[in-house]
């Protein structure tokens, strides 16, 4: 799985998704920003992926997408939209994957994020260390935190 970091100062969920979608289309991960945004928003309508503490984990599911990708989007805008707990969203962790394939790394990520301490550390993590911090979180979870 590939981990990317795409910092943004864009304000608002939809404009942020458009910016990330445009970037992912250039990377050949999504056909275009509109399809990316519509796919993510359709999933959000089924239930918010806001998990509290300024963190949100939206999903972009596309059959045949390989390798799976995690796009960390630190929000550096003066304002942000509120999560389910009312706190402003400061970090999106957008999971991009083929829904027909098993995703053990993403499952490990979600288990790791169940710890409020781990989630809070990620939200405060400087951009330069974010990809490594995410990789470490998934590796530690896969090894039950023993490494």
Automatic annotation (TrEMBL):
InterPro entries: PTrfase/Anion_transptr (IPR016152), PTS_EIIA_type-2_dom (IPR002178)
Gene3D superfamilies: Mannitol-specific EII, Chain A
Residue ranges constituting the PTS EIIA type-2 domain according to the UniProt record: 1-141
Name of the protein in its database record: PTS EIIA type-2 domain-containing protein
